[in-house]
């Protein structure tokens, strides 16, 4: 899964948004700031539709008042909301617009973040060549900055690309490089993101004990933060590890923790993956009726999301179930998701 840092439920205390209109037209700037702030609050609370409306309005005002930097930032936040909704085509178009707009401002810091996010979208779209090109371009930009923390986050994402292409030695080396950078910078949050990424690499390598330790460490901290995406990612990773180690009760608990939030966020792709994980557990437990229930729900979700050639980030058991239910969807089997 892509790594997104969200605002807390309250407006950040360093955002001061005056309400008084000034002669230089700064009220438009203030309204953009307020709309973006409200969008981030709604995004952190899982209210994606509301967040999209606020970000879109902020982007429209910033564009009409020729505030390139604020326009690019609002478009960037809007794209993140569409990523959560798995609307990758829309997110790609928005990130490209944000990239082109931010390039005109000379802000290399924000440009690097946008290029990394665009790489994440290409990774979701399984376009590995474009993903690598965007990550490398981001790294070249970020390497020019004194803030090494930004470059370390990009390094993690480049590692996730190599994990996807089964170049796990490269992936592990990059994630450890990022973790060492964060530790040197005393960035606890950054080190946790690198630890979570290492969990994904170890899971792909079949090193389940290492994966469990990494996921558990990350999950224990992310439960106390507002980082919904990383919390879900760590819980889902633990669910996969427990399932693959035949610890079905633990796996089911972790999957059931993530499912309501994924449904609320409208993240159909990962909702479907969780349902396949639950179905696989029930099949192993010889509970055919419950397994079939989850499979039918998964068919419904993937029908809404769209069927892919496969699920390249998943293990063979999940891939096998996905391949098995795809013909049933093509035959028109669908029902209301409960």
Explain what the structure shows.
The protein is mainly alpha-helical and 338 residues long. Helix 5 packs antiparallel against helix 6. The protein has 15 helices and no strands.
Primary descriptors:
mainly alpha, 338 residues, single chain
Concise structural overview:
The chain has 15 helices and no strands. It is mainly α and about 350 residues long.
Topology pattern, helix = H, strand = E: HHHHHHHHHHHHHHH
Q: What is the approximate shape?
A: globular
Give the structural class. Answer: mainly alpha
Distance between the termini: 25 Å
What percentage of amino acids are in beta strands?
A: under 5%
Largest beta-sheet characterization = none
What is the helix fraction of residues, given as a range? over 70%
Please state the CA-atom Rg, rounded to the nearest Å: 21 Å
Number of helices: 15
Question: Low-confidence runs (pLDDT<50, min 5 residues)?
Answer: 1-25
SSE arrangement:
Blueprint: H1 26-44, H2 48-64, H3 68-84, H4 88-103, H5 108-124, H6 128-142, H7 148-164, H8 168-184, H9 188-205, H10 208-222, H11 228-244, H12 248-265, H13 268-284, H14 288-305, H15 316-330
Helix pairs in contact: 1-2, 1-3, 2-3, 3-4, 3-5, 4-5, 5-6, 5-7, 6-7, 7-8, 7-9, 8-9, 9-10, 9-11, 10-11, 11-12, 11-13, 12-13, 13-14, 13-15, 14-15
């Amino acid at each position: 899964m892509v790594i997104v840092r969200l605002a807390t439920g309250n407006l950040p205390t360093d955002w001061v948004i005056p309400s008084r209109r000034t002669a230089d037209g700064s009220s438009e700037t203030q309204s953009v700031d307020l709309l973006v702030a409200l969008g981030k609050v709604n995004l952190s609370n899982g209210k994606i539709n509301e967040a999209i409306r606020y970000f879109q309005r902020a982007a429209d005002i910033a564009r009409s008042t020729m505030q390139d930097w604020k326009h690019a930032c609002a478009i960037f936040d809007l794209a993140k909301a569409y990523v959560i909704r798995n609307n990758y085509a829309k997110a790609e178009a928005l990130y490209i617009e944000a990239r082109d707009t931010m390039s005109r401002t000379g802000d290399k810091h924000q440009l690097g973040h946008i290029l990394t996010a665009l790489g994440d979208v290409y990774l979701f779209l399984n376009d590995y060549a474009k993903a690598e090109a965007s990550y490398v371009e981001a790294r070249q930009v970020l390497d020019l900055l004194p803030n090494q923390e930004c470059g370390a986050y990009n390094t993690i994402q480049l590692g996730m690309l190599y994990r996807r292409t089964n170049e796990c030695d490269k992936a592990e080396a990059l994630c450890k490089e990022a973790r060492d950078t964060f530790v040197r910078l005393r960035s606890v949050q950054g080190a946790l993101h690198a630890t979570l990424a290492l969990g994904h690499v170890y899971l792909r390598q079949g090193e389940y004990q290492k994966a469990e330790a990494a996921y558990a460490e990350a999950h224990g901290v992310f439960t106390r933060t507002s980082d919904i995406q990383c919390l879900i990612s760590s819980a889902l990773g633990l669910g996969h590890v427990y399932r693959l180690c035949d610890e079905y009760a633990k796996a089911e608990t972790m999957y059931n923790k993530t499912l309501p939030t994924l449904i609320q966020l409208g993240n159909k792709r990962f909702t479907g993956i969780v349902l396949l994980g639950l179905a696989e557990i029930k099949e192993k437990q010889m509970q055919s009726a419950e397994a079939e229930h989850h499979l039918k729900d998964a068919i419904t979700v993937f029908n809404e999301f769209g069927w892919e050639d496969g699920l390249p980030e998943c293990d063979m058991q999940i891939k096998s179930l996905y391949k098995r239910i795809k013909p049933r969807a093509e035959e028109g089997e669908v029902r209301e998701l409960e």
